[in-house]
Amino acid sequence: MGSVVTYVGLSLVLFAIGAVGVCIRRNAIVVFMCIEMMLNAVNLAFVAFSKLQGNLDGQVAVFFVMVIAAAESAIGLAIIIALFRNLVSVETTDAAQLKW
Amino acid sequence: MGSGDLRLSLVVLAPALGALLSYVIGRRSPKLSGVIASGAVLVSFLCSVLLWQQVGATGSFTATLSSWISFGDVSLPLQLYFDKLSAVMCLVVTGVGFLIHLYSIGYMAHDESVARFFSYLNLFVAAMLVLVLGKSLPVIFIGWEGVGLCSYLLIGFWFANTEYAKAGRKAFVMNRIGDVGFIVAMAVLYTQCGTLDVVELGQGSVLSKLPAGLAFLAGLSLFVAATGKSAQIPLFTWLPDAMAGPTPVSALIHAATMVTAGIYLMGRMHGIVELDPAVPAIIMWVALVTSAIAALTALAQNDIKKVLAYSTVSQLGFMFLAVGAGQYAIALCHVVTHAFFKACLFLSAGSVIHGCHHEQDMRRMGGLAKAMPITAICYGVATLAIAGICPFAGYYSKHAILGAISGTTNPLLVAAAPFIGYAATAIAVCTAFYMARSFIMTFLGGYRGEGHPHEAPLVMTAPVGVLALLSVIGGFLLVHPITSFVTGPLPATAGEHGSEGFVSLLIGSLPGLFGIALAAYLFLVAPREKELLRRIFSPVEKLCGGKFYVDEILQVLVVTPCRKISGIAFRAVDQRIVEGSGSALGSVTQAVGELTCRITTGQVTTYVLLMFIAAAAFFSVFSQVR
């Protein structure tokens, strides 16, 4: 069962890297990639726990996450393209008009 | 129950409906307005007569109009209750009210808002009937407030005149002060006795639940309520000012009916009033002082309506003397006879004012007996009645009151009874004097005004004539029957004075005869002596003419402190605390908003970071809860 701990540990590390990346990176595409990384970290945890529980619930959830991720990437890329058209930049710091 | 139901409801509903119709229809055709209003009161009167004929046999009628308040085990229906006491009041209110309505058709014929006038007048009659017929104190209170409202509306009927509007407001405010007493009494009675039903409150078993101190409070509070409505010290100054209203209003509301509501309340609640002997004693003294001050003030008035107004206050004091002596039936008799002769006086005065083109000052009248003989005769008859001359109405009730005073058994009053009796006799002389003076100044001598006075039309003189007739025969025919009739709702009248010889009748009339003779001597025979006396008594005259400065005293003692306290409360409480806390709340919210809006930097990274922190916080708390 030690392998489950390893998988979950890897999942945690991946999630943390993604979260930090979302927070500190300014390039929207990189931020986007980091989000995908976090989603996949969660997927990994789902699969690991599914194995531990001995049923398929977690693996089913992974499919949902994948579908959401696909939809999210379509919308996200569209947003990034729209951002570039307007600002000629994909830096998140440049898209700071919406404030007090 | 039975057939009494519908007729009893109709007594109240007819004038209420009349109030609506006389306005709605009267707006289109003003002439119909008075006819509808009079008809409504006539229906009410006829129903009262029908009920009155049967009440002797059945004892009482009850009618439930609707349920009013009902929750838990508290239920308060809108119930009317017709017993012998309310029978007498109903007949007076609707009977005299009908005559005054008729008179008003003539008096108000040329007024532009005649529909409004009759609507208010009918509404008043409806409210007054609720007052006398209410089965529980809250229902009586509806009528009590209703008549107060109508009084306000009718005093300020010609509201374009600021003075008149102010007089209406004064009456309203002073009556509200009295109403506090009513509410306090209701609160005490409900918490202690658990009921506000007038029938139950008359039972000894219910009243015995009242502890001694609270019995005094309840009785005194009821009397405070009565002082407001019935114009006794210290709340009487509104009544003379109330003469701003049209004269029929003065006759109906401020002489015959509404102002007697206090006496009715005392009679209705006599069980509570009598619980503590201090309450009747207070009533007696207040009544005596009021009656004396009002009678003296009336001596120096030149406005014909003001004379009658002070005379009303004085006569109300007389009624309260009987109440204080515990002779409620006699007080009720004086209510009835006073309704006849005072309404007659007011309506005659109204005819005079009408005939003299709205002149009210008696110094610019005189010699009117030639121009308006019918009015002069009616006024003269009513003057003899109020003066208490033998065969006229006032004699019987006044004489009975004097008898009641001397016969009082209240331990706190027995010693003072002779003094009160003499004082009341002196007041009776005074009454005769100022009434004779007003008669002489108005109807005898030479005319001192301008223009040509004319007699009133038949629609006005006929009701006055009927009232004058009642002033003649009312006392002779009614006083003894009434006192025996109302025994039951009211305690039995002590001491029989039915058999009186000619000599005692003459002696009883002496105070009145003396007052009239004095007035006649001074004003007709010896004007020089009058001037001499006047010079000797000029400080007294000044005091009387200044209405004993009661208004000014109230101004200093009550109105000014109230204004000051209100001012302080306005600045300290309202402006600082209430408004201050409101604006403080606003500025705090604004400051917090200004502070927190700094978070919205527009930087996505900040938002994400905050989101992570929030999520982390949420999940850590959530997992611990699990």
Average pLDDT metric of chain B? 86
Q: What's the architecture of chain A in CATH terms?
A: Orthogonal Bundle
User: Distance between termini of chain B?
Assistant: 69 Å
Number of helices of chain A: 3
Q: Supply Rg of chain A.
A: 17 Å
CATH class of chain A: Mainly Alpha
- Terminal CA distance of chain A: 52 Å
Strand order in the sheet with the most strands of chain B: 1-2
Describe this structure in a few short sentences.
The complex is a heterodimer of chains A (100) and B (626). By secondary structure, chain A is mainly α.
Task: Explain the overall architecture.
The complex is a heterodimer of chains A (100) and B (626). Chain A is mostly helical. In chain A, helix 1 packs antiparallel against helix 2 and helix 2 runs antiparallel to helix 3. The longest helix of chain A has 31 residues. Helices cover 80% and strands 0% of the residues of chain A. Chain B has four domains: 133 residues; 141 residues; 244 residues, no CATH class; 74 residues. Chain B contains 26 helices and two strands. In chain B, a hairpin with a 2-residue loop joins strand 1 and strand 2. In chain B, helix 16 runs antiparallel to helix 19. The longest helix of chain B is centred in the last third of the chain and has 47 residues. Chain B starts with a helix and ends with a helix. Classes of the chains: A mainly alpha (100), B mainly alpha (626). Chains A and B meet through helix 1 of A and helix 26 of B.
